[in-house]
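User: Predict the structure for this protein chain, please.
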Amino acid sequence: MPALEPDMLLRLFGCIAVFLGITLILAARDLTNRAPLVAWEGILRLVGGSILVYDGITTNLVLHGTLAGAGDIAIGLTYLMALSRHQNTTLSKLLYDQHRRVESHNSD
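Assistant: Here is the predicted structure, written as structure tokens:
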């Protein structure tokens, strides 16, 4: 299997982060209904950031990968903590899309 360029993972994750950022801008217009998308974006940032930090430490991406990964971890944690607080619910309810209140409709 051919070896990847050293900055390939960093560029790939950067492109993904840009497109997910666009998705977040669109999701923020209706956060009550689209909060699970933002929560899963936070999880993705944590996973991607962890991969970048690991690769940054173990390969020659030391400065770029580690800083980019640490930034993504910070963004992911901010999304998850702030979103739960803003929606007044738990993270697990957001991830399973169970965060909306069910209103009873009486047809008396």
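The first helix runs from residue 8 to 27.
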